[in-house]
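Morning!

This is the sequence you dropped in the shared folder:
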Amino acid sequence: MEEKLIQRLEAAVARLEAISSTARGVATNEISRDLDALASDPAILAFGDLISQRVGRVSSAAEKIGGQVLDVTKILSEAFSAQKELLIRIKQTQKPDTQGLAHFLSPMNEVIAKANAMTEGRRPDYFNHLKSVADSLTALAWIAFTGKGCGMSMPTAHVEESWQMAEFYNNKVLVEYRNKDSNHVEWAKAIKELYLPGLRDYVKNYNPLGPVWSPTGKPATSAPAKVPSKAPAPGAPAPPPPPSASLFSSSPSSSRPKEGMSAVFQEISSGKSVTAGLRKVTDDMKSKNRTDRSGVVSAGEKEGRTNSPSFSKAAPPKLELQAGRKWVVENQIGQKNLVIDDCDAKQSVYIFRCKDSVLQIQGKVNNITIDKCTKMGVVFAEVVAACEIVNCNRVEVQCQGSAPTLSVDNTSGCQLYLSKDSLRSSITTAKSSEINVLVPGAEPDGDWVEHALPQQYIHSFNNGQFTTSPVSHSGG
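The structure's back. Tokens below.
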């Protein structure tokens, strides 16, 4: 009896195993067919070609350069590969809400964050290369376009606008290495063609209205909720409660009590006595009638104020030639007679965190960078590539010879003195104000003629495109 029962159980188990293996085989075949279909999708194939051809060209040029340029190019390749994976998942996923979309795109955003981290801190040697990649990767955000009301430009326009931000730094690479190293020039040209026309044309041809989500796919997973690993110890404060559901409700904002300045204006316009709680100021409380107050500052108080200079925590000053290629001038304060006279056309000059000082460069150098300086004056004879002024405040720069390019970025207050040999220089400005250019007068001994560069612009939409012109002010 027991043997027959055991035989029947073994037969039943064998049948169940056969059914299970058949089901697994069917599911595996279905998944395989889905993956094959996605792999042969024209949009996925086209994006794969974009990576192999355009990104591959940038990587080939970066391998010849090495260093940080190669590192940031690897991040660029990783970001495009992450977007390809997202495009495949989109064809299998239903369109998520705003929070779900942010979680869905997090793998690509984490890669882009690594590129941005490389540009932070002290300005590296290949800063323009790093900024070109970091700013250009914002173009990949076209995949987050969900409709006209999402606050983004159309996908194709978004790619073009993102590249315009990165092109400022990419052009600096072209100018700096135009006659020095063809590998850097090839890298800069390759990264531009990656976006224009590469990514732009791909988006225009396959996703002009944004990515196409699957209406029958699986729902996108939202960000997982954080669960405490263990209960709080006895006597310890309880963890804060989760946020109220009203924070994510779709009710109009007028139904919730106003906060901040909106509440202030609402109370003022309500007609209530907003001064009811204020105290009455009597004559003896007024400053002019008080005998315990005086306008004289005591010597001790004055000394205490003057003994706390704002640059007391600055690093030690430095003026030296590093590795025979780069002059470094750092943390100079109140030094009016700084001079670099033993220099050549292969060397660069980097001026960092100097204040109320004057530097003379008595010779031809390759490149000059003035970074995070205040009330700094620089006089140079001639530069081969460019003179760059970045993150500065109230600086004066005089060119006594020639300079192909002068660039001013994120600077407030800049005086540029040009010689007759440098009147054909190209001046590039971005996020800067109060920039004046002084040129020699018509007479040999005449006064300098000052020209203010515009910082306000008018953008007009005409004939299907925007035209930009500086704001002109005229008195009448």
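Headline: The CA atoms of residues 112 and 171 lie 21 Å apart.

More detail when I'm at my desk.
O.
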